[in-house]
Amino acid sequence: MMLRVAYPIETARLLLRPYTEADLEDVLAIESRPDVARYLYWEPRSRAQVQMALLRRFPPPPMDSEGQVLELAMEHREAGVVIGQMLLFLRSLEHRQGELGFVLHPDYQHQGLASEGAREMLRLAFQELELHRVCGRCDRRNRASVAVMERLGMRREAHLVQNEWVKGEWTDEIICAILADQWRGR
Length: 186
Known about the structure:
Elements: E1 9-10, E2 14-17, H1 24-31, H2 34-37, H3 47-55, E3 69-76, E4 81-92, E5 97-104, H4 113-128, E6 133-139, H5 143-151, E7 155-166, E8 169-179, H6 180-184
């Protein structure tokens, strides 16, 4: 198993591509926002923190061993700016399991862009990496992320009550998933 893909991956409105150092200002505009970090494990990031995080995102890994994560910039084709991030984690080679993640600038939410990018990540997961199952996890209060996963055909598999201590409070987690044959049948 190894990911072989030509970048950028083009959708109707997006380019999914590896990050570059030139993306610093766009990524800072996203990751420094409290409303973006609210349901994530990290607090709003400073310029220095974004620079360090950005350096860890390239070059993209070959996705040939467990624990690797493909982090792609979501560039809005018309605006020419990075508006978010798409992630695909390789969780298990033996069981062919992955995990989908995404972060989107609030100014671009509620336009179907997260779903558009996530559909391509599922295509990579199932067609290119030949995974069997992909899940997504988020804070229960993050209704927008749950809605994106459900629009993608992912079924809600679990509601874990107070399973994580995040930012000084117990949080509930929603887990959604889709199997390769379910994805192909959509």
